[in-house]
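Contributing new records

If you add data, match the layout below exactly. Sequence lines come first and carry their own label; structure lines follow with theirs. Keep one chain per record. Anything else will be rejected by the validation script.
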Amino acid sequence: MRQQRLFSLLCSCMMAFLLSACGGGGASSPVSTSSSVVPNAVTEPGAPALTGNTAIDGFNWFNFRRVQLGLGALDHNSLLDVAAQAHSEYQKSNDTITHEQTVGKPGFTGINLIDRLRAAGYGFSATNYAYGEVISSTGDRSGVNAAEDLITAIYHRFVIFEPRFKQAGVGAASVNQGYTYFTTDLVADNLNVGLGAGKIVVYPTDGQKNVLTLFNSNYESPDPVPGKDIVGFPLSVHADLGSLLKVQSFTLSLKGGPPLASLLLSSATDNQTPTSAAALIPLDPLVGGSNYDARFIGSVDGLAIDKSWSFSTR
């Protein structure tokens, strides 16, 4: 068992002006809960070798999952490492999990993420760019487990699997016999690079095996399923940041069965979901060792999409 607290942040800037709101519970109290979602994910075929470094193992695991989706691996940027490590140290020093730092507190490097990126020496070369951050605090020093937990948490997944992001930096700081603060900062220095018009990726991927059966909704802030704790593992669809993804139908079925009762997250009904993505959260845990069929019908920037895929649970 381990404690975990998860917060996410996704911001996009075009012409250096902030366009999208930053979701992530900056005004919320940290979530502190017990977790048993430790999937031994490192045993999966093709998984990256462990280094024993929390930050590096987490970074490698994000890239492992991104490549499974068909997204390019993130380039590791040392200046982004500086920003991420400093923010982890700030959270450790102040026993807090937050995307905003307070002037005068130990380890202060900048109030907002963009301030901390600049303080670390990272500069954007293009006028259209994007940046995001995901953070967690857990009683487990495994970078793989921290990364997998963040991917399972759907609002964090929107950031981690943003197709336009091409660079990232990571940092981790641990308190003796206490929390490990894991920070990942992601950027796109040019929004002209991505999947392309009318294209999507989905998670879990087609043919993926050993998918987790459940998600502890209360462990994420904001909570994507208010009033309910244990739900099924979320499905998600991702297009390029800045695109408009519309959902006509999104379903999940146990193979041969009817569609499952689920919660749809889209920008039309949920202000934490970006316009370029959507998610489907089954209201009950999935059945272990079973095959599932998913289907998404909708459009991206007016281009029709009808995609069916399958996966199996552990």
